[in-house]
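Pasting as-is:
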Amino acid sequence: MSDLASSDRRAFLTATAAAETRAADAPVPGGTPPVPPAPGGAPARPADGTEAARHADRELRELLEEVDPGRIEDTVRRLAAFGARHTLSSQTDPEHGIGAARDWVHARMKECARVSGGRMSVRLQSWIQEPDSLVPTPTRITNVLTTLRGTSAPNRVYVVSGHYDSRACGAAAADGDGPRADDDASGVAVVMELARVLAVRRTAATVVLAAVAGEAHGLYGASHLAGELKAAGMDVQGVFAVDAVGGGAAGEAGAAEDGGAAEDGARAPRAVRLYAQGAPAGGKDDSPSCRLARSVRDAAGDTAEVDVRVVHGDDRDRWAGDHVPFLERGWPAVRFAEPGGDARRPCDVDHTARVARVTAAALWTLAQAPGAPAGVQVRTDELGASAELRWRRGTESGLAGYEVVWRGAAEPEWTHVVEAGDTVQHTVGLSGDDVFFGVRAVGRNGLRSPVALPARPR
């Protein structure tokens, strides 16, 4: 890391802290050889996808119980009451437009931070957006950033975002009254509820809760935030864009009003789509974003409320969410969205609260677990009868050791795991031609990182 990058990283953390608010032996599926014994002669055990959820502690369960649908509803209603939260709408009217919405979100986030004991800070990230095809004149755009600084791994960052701007009809229709409760007051309500329940808690990694603007005009807010994090040299290991999660696919509240069907006829009141970009060529299930999505789905098992439907793609056709600028910078990023949603429908706050719990479970689990292993490599012998994996040991104080996982080459999920211990290498008696390997870190609290894949030898 260059001196400049180190300086920028310190500047980012200082800015957030100094903001105005201080306060089994069966064969592997696919015809692969029998599972070899783990060190000490014990067989490898199945790599159950809900393992991380089973390790969730009492504090996580308490956190999920504190998510309040009533507060989420209040947030959605208040944002909708500002009318057109259009990027080009008034920034000075105290009751209507983008400026009023910005100031209200900022004030509420500051209230959350006051009970954090100084661990949470809030700041306005503003800049002048130069004119382009959708912004006719230089326009100030502002993100509201709430940062909970990590206690032991402050440079490892997880971001949750929702966009508080909205658009009625045309991009230039600044005075059109488009309240957009679903798109995306619902996502901002999730972000704000996470700020409330996390303010009195500590996380090992840093969490950035962002209410961004300029989404409807070109993902400007998310792009600016991603650029700042990149310039600061932050280790962004997961981004969750929460966008249109108001249950437009027939949440219970909506069903009572207009039959409960989304624009494509879908009926799935307890489902949410999770868009995760696949790898560009082959192994589409193994991109960093897909591995992040697996962690979300595993953590969601602890809530037993939402069917997380992972979609291997950036987003719906003709859509682009605030996770995209983070993808463009090489970071794992996913987007939550209701299945087949229709942003014109009423917002079902119970569905939004369920998505908030899933997001909270994933965020808490990842922020408390060690970071994903780095520098993973695999070396096979000449006959391909075994594989040696190597990686760099992490420096986090809560790290207990590592696990090696694998699955048959035709399998979509990890099927087996062995404990490698607190080491930086492990040999498995399997051919790399038959299986895919991965390594994940394990914390002293029992929580697992996402799996890191080795670069396959050519």
